[in-house]
């Protein structure tokens, strides 16, 4: 099944080889390691209700990562084979960095970076107590556009992979926040969000056939859910 519409020649042709490493690094905004570090920093930076909201957003991101794992397995569609640049064309010190950031393996649909970026930055735009809501959503939209463009430019995804990832994650967030709105306290919402992440992580384990990444995600989700459950005096009561 082909998902391309000829976007690679247009996008890649506009990017000189000298900027390939920049494009690869920008995609790290949607990588799991960066997102994890971001949530840890924010959880340390804030406390009280704000921290509860940030951890709840993190629980939803765990759920989004689980969605990536089992939707990729369900569709099992390959990635495109049109790299932005041959690694040998890069300056030698950049070759190792590009090998880590500019390449990817596994299935290509939907874009995992698009799913995770959407879940991360839209959820943080919803809960972070900084600036105005309009500016937060504008910043989140800008980051999504950058990550999506770079994934296509690197030749790691078709445009439809990115759009599908954004749509899937946005619908998931909409439904999840609607559910969380039913609960009164920030502690309860935090626990419920982590519960959602745990359930989806379990589903990912089942669908992927007990894959190591899914098992690791489930372990993290259950650990955080257990800690949240013990810390929540209302025990997820409405």
TrEMBL record:
Tagged with keyword Membrane: yes
Alphabetical keyword list: Cell membrane, Hydrolase, Membrane, Transmembrane, Transmembrane helix
Localization, UniProt: Cell membrane
Record-annotated membrane-spanning stretches: 20-42, 54-71, 111-130, 137-156, 162-180, 192-225
Organism, scientific name: Halalkalicoccus jeotgali (strain DSM 18796 / CECT 7217 / JCM 14584 / KCTC 4019 / B3)
Keyword Membrane: yes
Gene Ontology molecular function terms on file: hydrolase activity
Membrane topology value: Multi-pass membrane protein
Phylogenetic classification of the source organism: Archaea, Methanobacteriati, Methanobacteriota, Stenosarchaea group, Halobacteria
Entry-linked Gene3D superfamilies: Phosphatidic acid phosphatase type 2/haloperoxidase
Domain Phosphatidic acid phosphatase type 2/haloperoxidase per the UniProt entry, residue ranges: 57-177
Protein's recorded name: Phosphoesterase PA-phosphatase related protein
One GO cellular component, as annotated: plasma membrane
Name of a matching Pfam family: PAP2
